[in-house]
TrEMBL record:
Chain intervals with Low complexity compositional bias: 9-22
InterPro entries associated with the record: Chromosome_partition/occlusion, HTH_ParB/Spo0J, ParB/RepB/Spo0J, ParB/Sulfiredoxin_sf, ParB_dimer_C, ParB_N
GO cellular component: chromosome
GO MF assignments: DNA binding
Protein name: Chromosome partitioning protein, ParB family
Domain ParB-like N-terminal: 47-137
Lineage: Bacteria, Pseudomonadati, Bacteroidota, Cytophagia, Cytophagales
Organism this protein belongs to: Reichenbachiella faecimaris
Sorted UniProt keywords: Chromosome partition, DNA-binding
Amino acid sequence: MSQKKANRRNALGRGLGALLTDDGGGENNVLAKKPLRERSASAGSIAEINLDQIEVNPFQPRTDFDQEALQELSESIKVQGIIQPITVRKLNNNSFQLISGERRFQASKLAGLEKVPAYVRTADDQQMLEMALIENIQRQDLNAMEVALSYQRLLSECDLKQEQLGDRVGKKRSTVNNYLRLLKLPPDVQAAVRDGKISMGHARALINVESTSLQLELLKKILNEDLSVRKVEALVKQASFPDEPQEAPEQKVESKEILSVQDKLSSHFGTKIKIASKDNNKGEIKIPFTSVAELNRLLEIIDA
């Protein structure tokens, strides 16, 4: 691997910080070793900044915050302070704009703080949007639709290709594509995914249904009957290929002749053999085994 590629991967591993245009604020930075009150709020520094000098991020993709969780964070900040500084960019001498740390910013206001520790970074509008979206995606409590919408915004508003997007968020292109396909589903199905009524697996199965009305019909069936993903996949396959012959159900063995053959085979192989007969005079012989050793024993008998 070339040094250039190695550096790129290391940058991705550092998360949002790798997207910023300066390297300040690290542990080895002289500014980082000074007390916060002694530092100037210049790019590449960590400083205490008045809350009323900080504007919220206009590119923040998530505007709905759990108020109870926010209050809990506020109480924690009152006791422990802010453990991880927020990140801002400097607009002018007296004005900053939030890049990441919206919850910490809002909770600090609730806690009655006047100042907060902040990394001061350099970033243009597109980088602001990209960082805000990626930070949003990295949250653990996002549902599949929120992830899909964030991916879509990164593609359209940040002019990224799927391969580049995969690099940014640390996902394979196929994974990114699976999320993006969810956006093709009807609004009712998307809402069901968003609200946790169905899983992403259910939704991915419904994507393969061409008819919107049938997708909604299957959604209703999933919700009413609590269907598994595998069952939905079977229903989708049946709906997509209605002319494909379905496997006939096994019939009860009633013929004395078949029972006699079944007993002889069971005795010969030393295990219970099952003959499954169908109504078209066809069927199959099932020879069960419970281990590789038993399978090898059966194969030796067949080869004898």
